[in-house]
Structure formats: C-alpha cells, structure tokens
Amino acid sequence: MVSTRAALLFGPGQDFKIETVEIDNPRAGEVLIDVRACGLCHSDEHARSGAMPMPHFPMICGHEGAGEVLEVGPDVTSVSPGDHVAMSFIPSCGRCTYCLSGRAFLCNDGAKLFNVGMITDGRIAHRLGDEAVARYTQIGAFSERQLLAESTIVKIDPEVPWTVAALVSCGVATGFGSAVNRAEVKPGDAVAVLGLGGIGVSAVQGARIAGARLIFAVDPVEFKREQALRFGATHAFASIEEAANAIRELTAGAMCHSVICAFSVMTSDLLQPALSLTGKDGTCVITSVAPFGQKVADLDLFTFAMTNKQIRGCLYGSQSPRTAIPRLLDLYKAGTLKIDELITRTYTLDQVNDGYADLEAGRILRGAITFEDAPR
Hints:
Belongs to the zinc-containing alcohol dehydrogenase family. This protein is α/β, with parallel strands linked by helices and 376 residues long. The protein has helices spanning 42-49, 97-100, 162-182, 198-210, 222-230, 240-250, 271-277, 301-306, 321-333, 352-360; strands spanning 2-9, 17-23, 30-40, 59-60, 65-72, 84-87, 126-128, 131-132, 134-135, 145-149, 153-155, 190-194, 214-218, 235-237, 256-261, 278-286, 310-313, 343-347, 366-370. The strands form three sheets. Strands 3, 5, 6, 10, 11, 18 and 19 form a seven-stranded mixed sheet that branches. Strands 8-7-2-1-4-9 form a six-stranded mixed sheet, with no helix packed on it. The two termini are 16 Å apart.
C-alpha cells in the first residue's frame, strides 16, 4: 500500500481539497508512477461545474500528466522502473478492432474511463479511509503518486521536460490533431480556430505546421488573442461576428476551408455561427466538450446540404496516443512545435484551486502543477 497526497473533488460546485489517499501496489498490467507534472485542462472543470456528471465522488482529477515509473506489476513489458512516461486518458489495449486498425483513440477500454475500479481488473485500488476514490478518466494526475494501467502510459525521451510531456499527453495532441488529422489542413488553406485555450492554440500551431496560409483566431480574451498571434495565427478577432466580415474580405467570399471549435464549452447556439465561417465543401471540427445532457444542435440544414459542408467530431485529435505523443515531442525537440510557451504559470498541488481560478478568468493559456518539492 502506498500513501499519497492528492487533490480530491467531493462533488460538483466544490473546490478541490488536498487529502492523503491510500493506493494499492501494482498488480498485473499496472504501473506505479511518481508524478512530476500535470496540466490544468478545462475538461476537469466540466466535472467540477457539473456540466459533465460524474458517477462517483470523491474523485482525483487531472488527466494530462507525466512522471517516472517507480514500480511495475507482473506482465508489464513496455516500461521499467526509472523510465519517463506521459499519461494518456485514452487507453490503448492493443487488442480491440480499433487499436488493431490504427485507431487507438477509439479503444474499447475507453468505456471504462469513468469506472471507479481499475481499468485492469475492476477492483477498488484507491481509498480515503474506507471510502472508494475514483480517478478522472482513470488517470487522476493531481496526485504525488498514481497507480495506472500500462495501457494508459507512453514511454518518452527522458530529456523532455516534465511539463512539456504532461501537456503533450492531452491538450497539445488534441488541438494539433484537430487541425492536422481531423480538419486535414493543407498548404494554402484558410482556417479558423474558435476558442484559444491550450487546445485552441495547439490547433493554431497544427494549422501553421500543416501550411495554412490564413489562420483566424477567435476569442473574447485579449491576452489569448495576443498569444495566438505568437503561435502562428495570422489574424485575431474578439468575436465570430467580427471575424466573419474580415474573413469574407480576405478570402474573396470563399470563407474557410476548415473551422475548428475549441470553445471551453460547446453549446448548440455556437454551431451555426461556426458553420457560417466554413466555406463550400468545408469542414467544421467539433473538439470542444458539450454539456452532457445537450442532445440538440442548431443549424441551417438547407444551406448545410446545399453547400456540401461536413461536421466532424474529434476525440484526442483523431490519432493514437502511442504514435502521437512521441511524434509531437520530436517536433518540439526540433523547435517546430512550441510547448514551453504554452505554460503561462506553474502551481504547486496546494494551489490547484488558484490555477483553475486563473484559467476561468482567462489569465493563462495553460497552467501546470509541478511536484519538485514532493517527498521522494
């Protein structure tokens, strides 16, 4: 049994509380991680706000992280103690049809993401006293130590900074892949990115690296618009309405080849405005998470059909974590992909609530919790 400090959420609308959690030692197919860094992603805020109802509390949040392997259980073959790993909330079982066909982002083990028990055998392996503790998407990175399934970690180059590895594991991969894989941005394209958090700015970078000629960044927060221009956007606007007129002029009325929705929360009223920026035969990519109960989307169906447009959902940038994470880190090491610059501020575990307050206020692109001072 391992004791660890972790940030727990006890219910929607509450702040995180730091508690000491007891964790099992690793069993078959499991790995004990010394967590070194994790990102403050808006997806965890959906759990805290109640927009995404969680089946069990208390819960350790955090789903993009990196750390060092402390101990491995039987049958673990991809990592050994001392290895550096990135955590992926998308598991890769390696056996299901989706994994075998190169679409591990749709791995069937994803159905277990919000189970209370371990993804490996279903047992309760995390406890607060006698109470079971869940982990957000089977990761729970807001913890000094964490027990994970081997299928949710990816070995990485030990020279990569911990915060960089953490951000690549979710936000950077998701945003970058939204542009490169799902929107299929091509050289010379005109692209709009709506919402400029960590995912949106990573989509801007993906569009830039893919060769887009025009990249329109849209967000009401001036700081985020300024940052998007640093990361490769050619134009920035405070609203879709403001962007529409400029895009129409700059594209001679053709509008955008693709539009990527990276809003903090995707609501039905945002879809038609996004489609209005999408040109004929264009693609509108929905990467944003919508409220769980939202079943209806508003759009002009007649124009949608008559202009041959597409709407595409996008999970994890439509790519396999085991191939995407190393590839993106190679781009980072080559100086092509900016990740250090995404991290506006770092926090200690005890400052997790401050980090989310800064995120909500638009003061940061991405915050990261670091664990340098945690006892080893």
